[in-house]
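hi! just following up on the protien thing from before. the input was this:
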Amino acid sequence: MKIYLLLLTLFFCSLSFAQNSISGTVTDSDAQSVIGANVRIVGGTASTITDGEGKFTLNSTSQLPYVVEISSVGFVSVKVTISSKNQKVNVILKDESNLLNEIVVSASRTPERVLESPVTIERMGIADIKKSASATFYDGIENMKEVQMNTSSLSFKSINTRGFATVANTRFMQLVDGVDNASPLLNFVLGNMIGISEIDVQSVELLPGASSALYGANAFNGILFMNSKSPFTSQGITAYAKFGQTSQKAAGSNDYVDYGIRMAHAFSPKLAAKANFTYMRGTDWYATNYDDKTVAGRDRSHVNYDGINVYGDEVTTNIKGVAAGLFSAGAITQSQYTAFNNILPNYNVSRTGYNETDLTDNKASNTKIDFSLHYRPFGNENLEVIWQSKFGYGNAVYQGANRYYLNNFFMQQHKLEVKGKNFFVRGYTTTEDGGNSYDMLFTGININRVWKDDKTWFGQYAATYAGATLAGSTPENAHIAARNAADTGRLIPGTAAFKSAFDKVTNEASVLSGSKLVDNSKIYHSDANYNFKDLIKFAEIQVGGSYREYQLNSHGRIYTDKDGPILYNEYGVYTQLTKKFMDDRLKFTGSMRYDKAQNFDGNVSPRVSLVYSGGESRRHNFRASFQTGFRNPSTQDQYIGFDVGSAVLLGSAPDNLTRFSEVLPVSTATGQAFAGGSTVTINGLNAYNNSYTATSVAAFSAAGNPTLLKKTNVDYVKPEKVKAFELGYRSLIEGVSVDINGYYNIYNDFIGNLNVVAPLYGTAQDSPNATPSATDLGFQSVHALSTGNFRAFQLYTNTKVEIESLGFGIGLSKKVYRDFEVGVNYNYAEFKYDQAKDPSFEAGFNTPKNKVKASFGNEKLFKNFGFNVSGRYSSAYLWQSSMVDGMIDAATVIDAQINYEMPKLKSTLKLGASNIGGKEYAQVLGAGLIGQQYFASWTINP
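and the predicted 3d structure came back as:
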C-alpha cells in the first residue's frame, strides 16, 4: 500500500512538474489589441487564441525550452522562445497586407496555407465577422467571392456557388464541426437554423465547385465549413444583443431582435465544456408578387388567373364542361343543358384565391441551443473525445414546388467524435419534426372548400354566367356576375369564421381537406479519416470513408411512406496522396473516392491537382486541377410522392412507382365509357410509361391538333456526372493580394424535372389519331386530355443533352492608405444547353452572368473606432424552378457599419444597415422582396 501511494504521489508530481503556463498580450503597431490571434507551440499540439483585450493564457506539458508562434490574419507572424514557467509574453505584430498565409484544412483535409490550396478556397475569420456590415455573420458570407445567396425568408437563406440551384439546394453541403446540416427529409440545408452561433465561430471556409473526391456525392457545387471555437482555448462568457428594424413597402417597419450567449470553461487540461444559446425574431419579407404564374401580363381580372403569391386559384376547370356535369347530376334539364352548352365558353375558369399575407402571420424566428463536452485523456490535442448536441427551432418560409410555412419546425443533431493529431472518427444522428408546418397552396385550396365545394362553386358560376348572357350581358360582365354569385359565402380573412377554417385545414394532413406537413425523418451518419504523415515519410497519405442511412418518415404526406418509414443507405471510401517536388515548390495532390448508393451502381471520383510556388519568396502560386464528380439522386428524386395541387411530384425508384397510387374521378359519360367506370386507379407507372410531355400538351391545347402530342420517353433517374477543370493564381504583388481563377464544367446525365400529363384512359402515343373511334386507344387519350380527364406529374429524370458551364473570377485587396483597406472581386458565369434537343427539360442555372462585390473600411480609423462599407451588384438573370419561371432583375446593394471598442467593459458597439437607401430586390422569384435592415449591437467578450 505504501509503495502504491508513493508511485501515485510521484505520478501526480510528475504531472505537476510537466504542466507550465504562459500568458501575455498581443497588440499591433498602434497599441491596439489583436483579437483572435493564434498562439501555438511550434512542433506541439497546444494552442489558444487571444481574447477581446488581446490577452491569452497557454497551458502546456511541453519540456522547456520551447518556441511559441503568434500569428493573425494580416500580420507578420512572431516566434518567441519560452525558457521558464509562467513566463510573460507581450508581442507586437506588424501589419502584413496579405491574406494568403492563412491556414485552411478543408481543401485537402489537412492543414495548409491558402497559397498552397489545390483548389479555389475562400475564408472568413473572427476579424472578418467583426468587420461585416451584415446583420449576421451568415448574411455576410454573401460578400465572399463566388457566393450567391437565395433568400426564401428572413430566417432561411440558401448558399450556392457556380450555378444550378434554387432554395432547395441539394448540390451544396454545409458542415458545422464536421456535421452535415442537411434536413433528413428535404436533403438540403435550412440556412443557419441549426448551424452555429455568431460568437462561437472560429472560422468559415468555402470550397466552390465539385468536391466529390473527398467529401462524397453531395459535394457537387461546393461546401461551406463552419468551425466553432474550442472551450479549451476560448473560455469565459460571451454575449451579444442586437435590436433593429426591417423595412419593406409591403410589410412596413417592424422590430428585429437577435441575442445570444456563449459559456465555455476548461475545468482542467483534460476536461472542458461549452454551451450556446441564440434567439432571433423578426417580421418576414412579405411575398406580394401577384403576377400570373404562367402568362405574362395576366392579372386578377382574368377569369383563369393563377397568381404567384395567391393560393386557391390553382383549382380550375373548363367552364363549358360544367354543363355536362350539371346535367349528369340532375341539376339541369336537357333543354337547359343544350342552352348552357351553346352559351358557356370553351376555356378554363379558376376559383378566387387568397393572398399569401392572409395565410401566414409572416413571423420569422430561430432559436439555437447547443452543448458540448470535451475530454482530453492526456491533457493535450493528441486525443480528444467530443460529445455535442445541437437543437434548432423556429419559423421560416421554404419555397419549393409551392410555398411552405415551417411553423415551429424542430431539428436536432447529436455527435460523438474521437479525434487526434492525425485522425478522427465521428458518428452523428439528425432528427427533425415538422411541428405545425403547412403548405400554403393547399391551405388556400381547402379553405375555399370549407365554405363551398368545387362542384358547387363552378356550377353556380356556370349557371349565373348563362343566365346573365341570356339576359343580355356582355361576356365580361357575365363573368363578373358569375364570380360574385359563386363567391357568395366566401370566408373573409380576419374574421372568426376564416380563422376557424384556417385552423381546421392547417391541422389536417390529407391534401383532400388539409395542408399540414408531417415529418419525423432521421439520418444516421458516420465517417472517419486517418493521415499517415507520421508513419510514411515519402508522401502524405490519407484514407477515409463514410456511411449514411436515411429513415424517411412523412407518414405518407410527402413521401410514399404511409405504410412505414422508407430506409435508404449509401457509403463511400477515399484515399489521397500529397507529395512535394523541386525543393518543395511543386505540390502534387491526387485523390480517389468510391461511393455506392442503395439503388445505383458504384461511382469512382478521381481528382489530381498541381500547385507551383514561383518567385524568390514563393508567393506566385499557380494551381491547376481536374476532377470528376457525381451526384446521386436525392431521396426526393427517388421516393417523393407529393401532391402539390397542379401536379404530383413523383420520384422514380421502381418500388416508389408502384407504391404511389390514387383514385381519380372521370367526368363525362363518354369518358366513363372509355375508362370502364366513374373512377380510375393510377400509379407512378402511368406517369413514366403512359403520358405526354407537358410542352406537347400545351401545343395541342393551343392549336387543337393531336399530331403535336409527343409521348413521354424518359428513363428513371440515375447519378449525374461532371468533369471539372480549374486554373488559378494567387499572389501578393506590390502590396496587392491577387486571386484569379477560372473553371470549365461538363455535365452528363444532368438531373432535373420533366412535366408530363397522363390521360386517365387510352394509350399515349406520338401523334395519335384525331378521327373519332371508340376502339382507338390513341383517340381515347386525346379525348381524356380534351375533357380534363388527366393527371399532371413532375418527374425526376436526366437529360441526355450535355450541359456546359464556365466562369472566371478575380479578387483584389490592398491597404491603400494607413489602415484603410479596399477589396473588390468580380465573377462571370454562364452555361450552355441546347434547349431544342430537349425542349421539356429545365436546367435551372439561376445565376447572374456578372457579379461584382467591393468593400472599403478601416478598423483603426481612430482609437477604438472602425467602419466598413460593402457593396455588391448582380446582373439580371432567368429564374427557373418547379414553382414559377421568370426574370430576376439586376440589383445593387450597399451595406455599412461603424463599431466602437470599449476595452474597459470588454465590449464592442456596432451600428449597421443593409441595403442602405436601395431599391427592394428579389433573389428568389416568388419570395418577398428584400428591403432594408437596420440594427445596433452590443457584444461583450470574456
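The CA atoms of residues 427 and 526 lie 4 Å apart.
The chain has 16 helices and 52 strands.
cheers
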